[in-house]
Structures are given as structure tokens and as C-alpha cells.
Write a structure and sequence with these properties.
Elements: E1 5-9, E2 12-16, H1 24-32, E3 37-40, H2 51-64, E4 71-77, H3 84-92, E5 96-101, H4 121-130, E6 134-136, H5 150-165, E7 171-173, H6 179-187, E8 192-196, H7 198-202, H8 205-209, H9 226-238, E9 242-244, H10 253-256, H11 271-279, H12 290-309, E10 318-322, E11 326-327, E12 332-334, E13 337-339, E14 347-348, E15 351-355
Parallel strand pairs: 2-3, 3-4, 4-5, 5-6, 6-7, 7-8, 8-9
Antiparallel strand pairs: 1-10, 10-15, 11-14, 12-13
Helix pairs in contact: 3-4
């Protein structure tokens, strides 16, 4: 029924991991079932560091996706050796849309990341000159820093230095997770956007730790306090430079349920439903005002990100998000292993479907 259905253009995902090889068929088609465009992370093994490597990865994604209207937007991995010429090649390409900064050792497959921000000065200067976005994994890697404070430490150190040294550089603060991060983005809102994940809007460290460690709730940056979660919620609802980026990150079960638990939460197959679930309490749950919620989700999922990246809307397909229970599978196939999604085996109150042509 209309009153129980949200209808929006097919959403975008501005931060997505697909991996490569024999698992790409699963991850790419899950993503394509829920979004029209996605910023694809470059932290493969080996990482995607050149425009040519990004093109090759793009072609591998296209070869496996069964929904041709899905558009992957590629990125380059910033290393100590990335120079201005590679940045300018990326700007001139038709398939690279940003450069990702991983501090070396900060997260999955980040060992080739920056060992010092100072080593990226040439690349950052070229990006500032060209108006090309820098996408930042904002966590300090000093092992003496508390894991819950690593976002704050990076913000107060390296990110603050970047912002002061390159005042016109366009930046995306990826998967912002703390009140401190939100306030920093607010202070730099003339040139900074931020992606917010569904899991940072739905989970706190109690969900990760209370009653025993939940490995499938472990991600980097880690989920934090209820105060941090509420700050993220308010920012999404009131600031137009905060937009959807799932950071959906697939890992085999054997690497999640181990002593060195891999960091990442998998949400790609049902991410619009999770965002609806996260925000419904602000719209009157248990019987939310779906008309008002529809307007917000259209803006958050479909408009803000494309505006930041300077892309044009090309909505020819729409998505219906129905307030109808959906049971999340226990697992998905993943090479020789399985992939456990967020809320595996549980029921969530929304179900989404792409419909075409546009009504």
C-alpha cells in the first residue's frame, strides 16, 4: 500500500568494498541489487595505485555484474610514491573519482598506505589544484592510543595538518564514527563531506562487547558510545554534507571468527533497508511517517553524495522500500568459505526492491 511504501531513485553508496577474484560475483551483484552508483575502495592485494589498474578492476567488476545500469566509480590508493602526474591522469580519466588515504596499518589491506602525511605533499597539492577529492580513513595508528580514541587522534593531528596546509582541498571524511569527528566536519563544511555507515547509526560498543565479543559487529573505526551514535544521527538529519557510505566490507567467516578478527561489517545486500531502520525512530516508529521519511532518505541516499562529487542525476530506475519484514540470510557463499552479514538470521522491518522503468 502507498502509505507503507517509500519510493526514491535507486540509492548510491559512496564507500564500498567489493574485493576481487572468485568472490567478486557475490559482492558486486549484491551491491548492484541495491544501488545505482558506488565509490569502490582500492585496498586490494596488491592495491589499485594507477589509473590503468583502476580501469582493469572496473572491467572485472563490469564483467561479473548482471545489472548493467550499476555504475562503479573507481578510486586510487594513496602511497608514499603517488606523484602529481598520477593525480592528473586520474583527473583526466573517465573512471577515477577520488584518491583514498589509508594510514599504513590502520585497517584491512592498508600496509601499503601512507607512512607519513609529509610524503603525500606533492599528491595533495595536485589534488587541491585540480579540485579532486581526497577520501580519508581517519584513524591514527600509534599502538599507544586507545582504539576508541584513534579517530580523534587522527583528526587532531594529521587531518588538521592537511586542512591547514591545503585549505582548498576537497575531502571526504569516510565512515565518521564519533562526536568529535562530526564537529570537525561541521567546522570544515565549506569543502568537506562525510560518509556515515548504517552500522555506526545502529550499533554502539555495547552491541560489540556486552555479553561477549561479537566478531561480526567489529569494524574500524570501531562503533562507539550512544552519545557518538546520536551525534551521527543528528548530523545526518540536519547537515547536507553528510551522506550514505556503507563501508560494507566482506570477510570470510574464518577470518572474522578468529583470534585476529578481521575488521569489517557486511551490509551491501540490504543497506537501504538498514538506513530506513536506523532513522525510523526519528519519524515516529513503530508507525513512522513514511512520507516525511521518504523525503529525507531521498536526500541522504540519492542527492547529497552526487552533489558533493559534482555528478549529474540520471535516475531512470526507482526503489521501493516497503515496511515489510525481511529475514536476513544466515550466510552467503564466499569462495571456499561463507560470508556472514550484519543481523544474520534475524528479521528487519523493511524490504527494498528496484523497479523500472520510472513510474
Amino acid at each position: 500500500m502507498k502509505e507503507r511504501t517509500i519510493r526514491i531513485p535507486v540509492p548510491d553508496d559512496w564507500h564500498l568494498h567489493l574485493r576481487d577474484g572468485d568472490v567478486l560475483d557475490v559482492t558486486a551483484n549484491h551491491a548492484a541489487s541495491r544501488c545505482r552508483r558506488a565509490i569502490i575502495m582500492p585496498n586490494l592485494k596488491p592495491p589499485v595505485v594507477t589509473v590503468e589498474e583502476a580501469r582493469d578492476y572496473l572491467e572485472r567488476i563490469r564483467a561479473t555484474v548482471r545489472r548493467p545500469s550499476f555504475e562503479p566509480l573507481m578510486t586510487l590508493y594513496l602511497t608514499d610514491r603517488t606523484d602529481a602526474s598520477q593525480i592528473r591522469k586520474a583527473v583526466q580519466s573517465d573512471h577515477v573519482f577520488g584518491v583514498k588515504l589509508y594510514p599504513a596499518g590502520a585497517t584491512t589491506n592498508s600496509e601499503h598506505g601512507l607512512t607519513s602525511i609529509q610524503k603525500a605533499k606533492e599528491a595533495l597539492a595536485a589534488m587541491e589544484e585540480e579540485g579532486f577529492p581526497l577520501l580519508v580513513h581517519a584513524e591514527a595508528t600509534d599502538p599507544s592510543i586507545d582504539v576508541f580514541d584513534r579517530e580523534k587522534a587522527f583528526v587532531d593531528g594529521d587531518l588538521d595538518w592537511i586542512c591547514q596546509r591545503f585549505p582548498k582541498l576537497r575531502i571526504v571524511f569516510e565512515h565518521v564514527s564519533s562526536r568529535h569527528g562530526v564537529e570537525f566536519v561541521r567546522s570544515e563544511s565549506n569543502r568537506m563531506g562525510a560518509t556515515v555507515t548504517p552500522h555506526h547509526l545502529l550499533l554502539t560498543r555495547n552491541d560489540l562487547l556486552a555479553g561477549g565479543l561479537k566478531p561480526h559487529h567489529y569494524c574500524l573505526p570501531v562503533v562507539k558510545t550512544e552519545e557518538d551514535r546520536q551525534s551521527l544521527m543528528e548530523a545526518c538529519l540536519t547537515l547536507d554534507n553528510f551522506f550514505a557510505g556503507t563501508d560494507s566490507a566482506p570477510h570470510p567467516r574464518s577470518k572474522k571468527e578468529s583470534h585476529s578478527c578481521a575488521a569489517g561489517i557486511y551490509t551491501a545486500p540490504f543497506f537501504p533497508e538498514l538506513y530506513a531502520m536506523a532513522f525510523e525512530h526519528r519519524f515516529g516508529a513503530p508507525e513512522p511517517d513514511l512520507e516525511s521519511m521518504e523525503g529525507f532518505l531521498r536526500d541522504f541516499l540519492c542527492v547529497r553524495g552526487e552533489r558533493f562529487y559534482g555528478l549529474k542525476s540520471s535516475a531512470q530506475e526507482y526503489m521501493e522500500i516497503r515496511r515489510k519484514d525481511q529475514q536476513i540470510p544466515d550466510h552467503y557463499p564466499f569462495g571456499d568459505d561463507v560470508l556472514i552479514p550484519l543481523y544474520a538470521g534475524k528479521t528487519i522491518p523493511y524490504t527494498a526492491e528496484i523497479i523500472a522503468p520510472a513510474p
